[in-house]
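Notes from hallway chat w/ T.B., transcribed later so I don't forget. T.B. wanted the structure written out for a chain they're using in a teaching module, and asked if we could keep both sequence and structure tokens in one place. Agreed to drop them here.
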Amino acid sequence: MIRPVPFRGGGFRPKRIRGVGALVFVCLILFAEWGTRAGWISNLTLPRPSDVARTLFDLAASGLLWTHLSLSLARLGIGAFLGAGAGIVVGLMIGLSSVMRSGLIPLVAALFPIPKIALLPLFVIWFGIDETSKYALIAFGTFTPTVVSTYGAVDNVDRSLIRMAQSFGISTKSIIRKIVLPGAMPGILSGLRVSLAIAIILLTAAEMIGAEYGVGAYILEAGSLYDLERLFAGVTILSMLGVALSICLSLIEARVLGWRV
């Protein structure tokens, strides 16, 4: 009797189990609600999640939620698009050109360790206190990590595939389009996750200086009044924004990297 052998070549591919992430969030919220109501957690330290939810509902009902969120999304989208787009282009140039690699890697290495938040006053001096300084800060903050992740992803492409294509006389343009870019795409998308997280941090910092509306301005106003419900409501909005961006990137990965088994 022939016994079937189970497939053992999954390659450590992670399986997505639906509902586990949501369950973790629910458990943490229920624990915080129980702790604040039972007195184990002081309301001066952590507000009740139910009060935070009520604050978010009131903010949405008043229409201010969309006012703050729309401006923040516009700033985040423009700044991250400029910075990440330029970072991908420069990273590909470094990965594909020896001249660019020799000239730009020292510059990127010098710019990468600089705390971008510390440059906010300088950007305000250069570009003014209006929207341009916020776009510039977010773009600069997402540029360097995207460059590093992009040329690192290009360097990690299997060189045997490139040599094989060259041996068959395939043009350089086709090699880049059909081998290098698909092979580097997982690393590029992983780098974008980090870059977008940095963009949200810089967005919050930029909106705390010279912005009347925006999630960062809302958090700063709540903190100055020691209004913990509003403060945690603003933090919740940022957290939900990060989760939404992560889901969008996951959908892009599933579509772009569908060739992986």
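Follow-up for T.B.: Residues 33 and 195 are 33 Å apart (CA to CA). Might be a good example for the class.
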